[in-house]
Design a protein that fits this description.
The chain is α+β, with helices and mostly antiparallel strands. The chain is 43% helix and 19% strand.
């Protein structure tokens, strides 16, 4: 990942993006807006070259991949302007594989993490979706550590039909404003008049 980031940092597309964004918070915000999570196939690990990611994003309007792809791209963008950053890989005890990768950047005497794969507030997302009450979600990146407690709380909440106050800070509704904007954008596509099929 480091090799790819350092190799591609001199590419004009990367240089332009780096000059435009300029700081870790702007890189993080930008990637959150245009990143689509696409996991690698089972038992295969791909890492897309940053310049390839940028060229594809120009064509399709978004970036895609998993955590190692986003961390490598962010590292490349910030390496292009010599911002001090470190790739951080997390491996659980007794595990061979790393379970997550993100980018940690030096900033204002502290650190700023770039990780567009997890929610912006870094918290789990748990509960019924406000605009689709038949859908209940339980999403967390720290599933191994919180799964036993979260599983009990979610099961009880679904079975009894009563909200559990312990889960209140994790409700999907906290993203309602952004979700509403995205939903309206998607709906607008379907509201447009259908195109007429050309006659033969």
């Amino acid at each position: 990942m480091k090799t790819l980031a350092l190799r591609d940092r001199w590419q004009p597309e990367i240089q332009n993006l780096a000059q435009y964004l300029g700081t870790p918070p702007l890189v993080d915000d930008y990637l959150r807006q245009v990143w689509r999570v696409v996991p690698d196939p089972e038992d295969v690990e791909y890492i897309a070259a940053p310049v390839h990611q940028v060229r594809l994003a120009r064509q399709r309007g978004y970036f895609s991949g998993d955590c190692d792809d986003s961390a490598t791209l962010a590292a490349c963008i910030l390496a292009a302007i010599n911002w001090p950053c470190t790739l951080v890989a997390i491996r659980l005890p007794n595990e061979y594989e790393f379970s997550h990768v993100f980018l940690r950047c030096a900033m204002d005497g502290g650190a700023f993490d770039i990780d567009p794969i997890v929610s912006a507030d870094r918290l789990p997302i748990v509960g019924p979706v406000p605009w689709l009450d038949t859908l209940y979600v339980a999403v967390t990146h720290s599933g191994v550590t919180v799964a036993p407690a979260l599983g009990r709380l979610v099961a009880r909440e679904i079975a009894e039909g009563e909200p559990d106050g312990l889960l209140a800070p994790f409700r999907p509704g906290r993203f309602a404003e952004r979700a509403t904007k995205v939903l309206l954008e998607v709906e607008s596509v379907f509201r447009e008049r259908p195109r007429q099929r050309p006659s033969l």
